[in-house]
Amino acid sequence: MRFYRKIVMTMAICASASVLGTACMAQEDAAVVSEETNNAQQAGFRSYLEIVRQRALREGVTQATLDRVLPSLSYNDRVVRLDRQQPEGASSAPVPNFAPYKARHVDASRISRGRAKYAELRPLLKRIEDETGVPEEIMIAIYGHETNYGSFMGNFNAPQALASLAYEGRRRALFEGELIAALKMIDKGVPQYAITGSWAGALGKPQFLPSVYLRLARDGDGDGYADIWRSEVDAMTSIANYFVNAGWRRGEDWGFAVTVPASFNRGGMRSRMTSPRCPRVFARHSQWRTIAEWRQLGIAPQRGFWPNDNMMATLIEPDGVGNTAYLLGGNYRVILDYNCSNFYALSVGLLADEVRN
Predict the structure, then answer these.
(1) Which residue of 23, 241, 282, 325 has the fewest C-beta atoms within 10 A of its own C-beta?
(2) Per-residue pLDDT, 330
(3) How confident is the model at residue 6 (pLDDT cuts 50, 70, 90)?
(4) Measured in whole angstroms, how far is the alpha carbon of residue 76 from the centre of its chain?
(5) Can you name the CATH fold of 153-245?
(6) Is the dihedral of CA 13, 19, 24, 25 positive or negative?
(7) At residue 316, what are phi and psi to the nearest 5 degrees?
(8) What pLDDT is recorded for position 95?
(9) Listed residue (226, 221, 232, 181) closest to 202, CA to CA
(10) 160 φ/ψ angles, rounded to the nearest 5 degrees
(11) Looking at residue 311, what DSSP letter applies?
(12) Domain ranges (residues) in the chain
């Protein structure tokens, strides 16, 4: 009916303007093509959901959940357009400087709000750090970066967004797997409000994908439910559990700012390894050296003191030669596991330092 109202309205506007000619006919033809395309798209989407149904059944999702959820879904073109707008990160594209990103993400507002949230949650955070070894300020920095301390967690229906992205096909393996995980969450009794998140299906205060929620979300307050949407106790406990699972080393720095001498031989320190994961991200890191070796090469910490001489670290110069560089420890790689971006991981570490100080 909406389609026919659109056609009738177009004809009425044209008639009132006495221009029932080529321009108006073109508008009518475009409306017909658009509606036909939409109908075909929705039909294809519904057929795809039957494939999803069969896979979900094989993986243990109940028929009742599938009968309730799948018929309610429709293709959402907006999430597909948002996904296509994401930078591809082609190896030939120039890498921008870190400074503008840092200015937006480690700004005065985020720092002040982080310090306030840190003070508010301090007893909870200390208990989690004592249990896991993940620093209080790292949990807060992740919280701040992902959802601005819980102020915005997204308003997209996650199963619908994930189904649309999977149907579109460019990254079907990823998004179909996350759709199945979301269906499993619903099957386990996760309430409706919890199945709302970002356009890419990330959920709650830590922005966990459904598969991550199923593996790593934790109940921190003992009520039997890992509520990463409404409970900061559960959200912080879950973030810490993610970091423990990714290999966080208790008592070790993520990294710190350094000054590199003009005589430094960068060519001799270039990494010879190619990472199978996020190769462009890791290609910006130097070879690993101990802190003692970096000190002998003339690197100087801007904070005025060094960590343990035996700690291993790599060097990154995200704003180019002559600007602030960073030595990065093994825990930096854990932050990259959360979001494989040097800019993200650096800003999380720097925000954490500001919150603690």
Answers:
(1) 23
(2) 97
(3) very low
(4) 20
(5) Helicase, Ruva Protein; domain 3 (1.10.8)
(6) positive
(7) -135, 140
(8) 83
(9) 181
(10) -65, -45
(11) -
(12) 2-80, 153-245, 255-328
